[in-house]
Amino acid sequence: MDSPCMGEVQWDLQDQKILEGEALHHPKRRKNKMVKDKECSMFLAGLFGWNEAGQSVMKLAPRSSAELVTETLMLELGSHLKRSDRQQRERLIEYRRVKNGVDYTWLASVPRQAYELSPGDELELRDISSKISPSQCGPVILRFRRLMLEFEPEGAEIPRLFRSVLQDFVSKEEEQRKKKQEGPWEKRRRAKSLATFSFKPPRLRVNPFQLEDAHGSDTESELAASGRARSKSMPEFSTTEEVH
Q1: Are 40 and 94 in a shared domain?
Q2: Count of domains in the chain?
Q3: Does 154 share its domain with 178?
Q4: Which residues constitute the domain of residue 158?
Q5: pLDDT tens-digit profile of 74-121?
Q6: Do 39 and 98 lie in a common domain?
Q7: Do 88 and 179 fall into the same domain?
Q8: Has residue 200 been placed in a domain?
């Protein structure tokens, strides 16, 4: 059986909940509670560094297309360098195992360091990669992979092959850009040259003396021929003198 003191405590708790509910519905008290909640959240954010993270995220500017292309191409080069180093290390281990049976040389020997790009080569490759258009990024990667499978370069040969592929695509893009820029100017120049050009008929030089000579010779030959034909067709007449 519950004691009267316990009943009083329960009634006091219920009254307190009711009062708190009524206080929340009061505009002024509700505003004070919102301010306290905001202060609490700001304290927790400062304690765990949430504000700094949010500010750093807000400060990050969107990357340009050239930066995205450069990062993609450099990641492709880095993956090929790591893969080539791993394959070379596996071939070396396999060669030692076949030659000496069980290979324990890796316990005493210093591990071979992987090939790393020098800062100058990396800056040069990044500069060339930034000149590749986004539409050509995929073809560059496909061609580089095909050449890697064909030649299987190692170490320093891989960046040289990558540089040659980039320079080839950059030169082609520059040629296409020049053709596009020179196209309208070439058409205008051709139209201007055609407008200034006038078609003139060839001059005929007429010599009246040659025409008269030719005409006279033709008429004389025609008259002679007609006279010969007439003399052959007409009978001969002879005149006799009468004697008185």
Answers
A1: no
A2: 2
A3: yes
A4: 65-104+115-189
A5: 999 999 999 988 888 888 888 777 777 665 665 655 556 677 888 899
A6: no
A7: yes
A8: no
Q: Write the CA distances from 97 to 104, 109, 113, 188, 212, integer angstroms.
A: 9, 15, 20, 73, 112
Buried b (16+ CB within 10 A) or exposed e, 54-90: eeeeeeeeeeeeeeebbebbbebbeebbeebbeeeee
Contact criterion met (CB below 8 Å) for 141 and 76: yes
Structural domain contains residue 177: yes
pTM, to two decimals: 0.50
pLDDT tens digits for range 13-27: 555 555 555 554 555
Q: Residue 68 corresponds to which amino acid?
A: L
Residue 23: CB partners within 8 Å, gap ≥ 6? 29
Lookup: tokens for 233: 């067709």
CB contact at 8 A, 158 and 81 = yes
3-state secondary structure of 122: helix
Amino acid at 23: A
Whose structure tokens read 């500017």?
A: 61
Length, in residues, of the chain: 244
Residue that is written with structure tokens 């890697």 in the block? 148
Q: Dmax over Cα atoms in the chain, in whole Å?
A: 209
Q: Let me know if residue 6 belongs to a domain.
A: no
Structure tokens of 166?
A: 């980039």
User: Between the CA of residue 83 and those of 7, 118, 158, what are the distances in Å?
Assistant: 77, 18, 11
